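Weekly modeling sync, notes
Attendees: AB, CL, MP (scribe)

Item 1: holo prediction request
CL wants a bound-state model with magnesium ion before deciding which constructs to order. AB pointed out that an apo prediction alone won't tell us much about the pocket. Agreed to run with the ligand included and paste results into these notes for async review.

Input as submitted:
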Amino acid sequence: MSTETQAIQELATREYKYGFVTDVEAEDFPPGLSEDIIRELSSRKGEPDWMLEWRLKAYRTWLTLKDPDWANVRHEPIDYQAIIYYSAPKRPKSLASLDELDPEIRKTFEKLGIPIDEQKALAGVAVDAVFDSVSVATTFKDKLKALGIIFCSFSEAVREHPDLVRQYLGSVVPYSDNYYAALNSAVFSDGSFCYVPKGVRCPMELSTYFRINAQNTGQFERTLIVADEGAFVSYLEGCTAPMRDENQLHAAVVELVAHESATIKYSTVQNWYPGDRDGKGGIYNFVTKRGHCRGANSKITWTQVETGSAITWKYPSCILQGDNSVGEFYSVAVTNNFQQADTGTKMIHLGRNTRSTIVSKGISAGHGQNTYRGMVKIGRNAANARNYSQCDSLLIGDECGAHTFPYIEIKNTSAQMEHEASTSKIGEDQIFYCRQRGLSTEDAVNMIVSGFCKEVFRELPMEFAIEAQKLLAVSLEGSVG
Amino acid sequence: MNGANHTMLEIKNLRARVGGKDILKGIDLAVGTGEVHAVMGPNGSGKSTLAGVLAGRSEYEVTAGSVTYNGRDLLGLDPEARAREGLFLAFQYPVEIPGVNNAYFLKAALNAVRKHRGDPEIDAMGFMALIRDKMALLDMDQALMSRPVNDGFSGGEKKRNEIFQMAVLEPKLAILDETDSGLDIDALKIVANGVNALRSPNRSAIVVTHYQRLLDYIVPDFVHVLSDGRIVRSGGKDLALELEARGYGWLEAEAQPA
Ligand SMILES: Nc1ncnc2c1ncn2[C@@H]1O[C@H](COP(=O)(O)OP(=O)(O)OP(=O)(O)O)[C@@H](O)[C@H]1O
Ligand SMILES: [Mg+2]
């Protein structure tokens, strides 16, 4: 093996730095799932009857469904009775102020670089922090409230804004949508809710930070964002988890609704624990994300940087119902060591003059397997629909893989489709060229990888683009090829 | 010519192989500080191999010999350390790096070298000011700066970009591997100007070429002929003229071991 290849391999093997465990007292449920557990969960959260009923319907549906087996990923069967469905740090029923927050949890988020003190918060970013199953802190709530924007934990939304939640919950991802969405609908514990009223432009980035701490727990959060007519909101989601030998399940659902002329930008930086170098442990990230461009001229943009998780299974999608609505999907997915990712999007064109853009960048290193799976559907009434898709794969080393599965279904002949795909490899000659100019192998790989991803990074809010770039560097450390 | 100068590079009995085949079969060469040496020789004789070994290309296995660079064991340094110590290779085949902006790349390279020297990093503004003159010197098209490194560059543009990088990085020892091939006459003059602008009593260069044409502009202090992995003849600048007239045949015949 040449020194370049060795260096590349070494790059891929840096430690996961968010892998610590926080020592807090938690209230856990016994493992396992049943109607009783769901009733207990719902009552513990003080939910209204309609919420419990919805959960139970979802649960009964879930019992009739089967794990999807079409994804290009491999794992042992999951024992759903071994998972703990609710774990919450013990604390007073509700926090009068952020000062009451358990100092251990505060420390955790500080360690992660997530500001939950308002005065220390990143300028212009409101944060909702979710620790295991519950939301522990939401910053800048009052400032947002003055504009009529609701940004709170999902549990709080169910209590305080039941009409809005009832109106929109499940309206984009019904509980019967798929196996994991049904499971989530039955047992979701918390998450974030956001409503931006007519004509309001949310003046700051909204951000939720998810953290799995407890052992053997699943995290099933639910996010619902509604942008009313002419509203604008940009939302960012980040995630980490401790290093554990067992696999942990994360099955989230995200629903976005954009009314007429509204815009939602949803950005994810996913860095769940990916497992160790030999593929032991790590998060199973089985997530359903879908946006509905309900009104004319609305726009939804999904941007994701997926560097973590042992297995990622997610397809943030857009239903383009409103005329002239726009859906965008920008994705960077990294698989290193034994990580597997099967990710992509669905763009469903229903309205006239609807447009969609798909830019997918898959990076595989080590033994990583990276699959892009994307669907573009042009409905019968979607006159003049346009889609542009670009799927690029970058291979680092000889033992990884990249796969592309584009599906196209066109029922209106006026559609215009453009598809570009490429596969490239970081070559030893490129690395040597950089080193001959004085750059280290790591810097060379980072530079090439960032160059490969820049169309996606430029869609992220500035601070997060820098964060994402660093994260990418860390996840590829030890991987050059 | 400059015999009194200290030796910048000293190659002793250097042997190297690639893919199980011996390519360099005992090279001895000393390059004094301030000197320009031309290395000529038939295709496949090992010129690029020698350049690659000096730059630290990992596919070449050094089987014997030593190389001292400014008093240090060159072969013990990794490629980036050699580069930061002022060794620059203008590639015979410059490598394309899609997605990486040419100016950004060069700024990163310059800062790696500066950091090594203990100089402060240069920011984008300072960098643009610094490269302005060098771009003029090499008549570099501004558009090439914002394109990805060598990606889709014409053959001549790639070569010019190499010398432009050299002009910005200001190496102590420049090794130019057939920088003239693929250049039109005007470009050849421009590139030679760029190299000459860098000539100074404290810099040296090894210029690999097949043609006297380049040596009309970059006048060497010494000329060496490499054949089958050995230096079979060394001389002054007139040797190149003789080669131009007579080819390599007579030297190869002379060099046959008895
Ligand atoms: N990776 C390799 N595997 C096998 N043989 C190689 C390899 N690299 C170089 N060689 C051989 O080594 C010999 C010397 O090559 P080198 O590139 O050094 O020649 P050169 O003098 O630069 O020739 P030219 O004038 O054509 O550029 C050639 O016979 C070449 O085929
Ligand atoms: Mg050569």
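Recorded for review: Chain A touches chain B at residues 2-4, 424, 427-430, 432-441, 443, 447-448, 450-452, 454 (CB under 8 Å).
Action items: CL to compare against the apo run; MP to circulate these notes.
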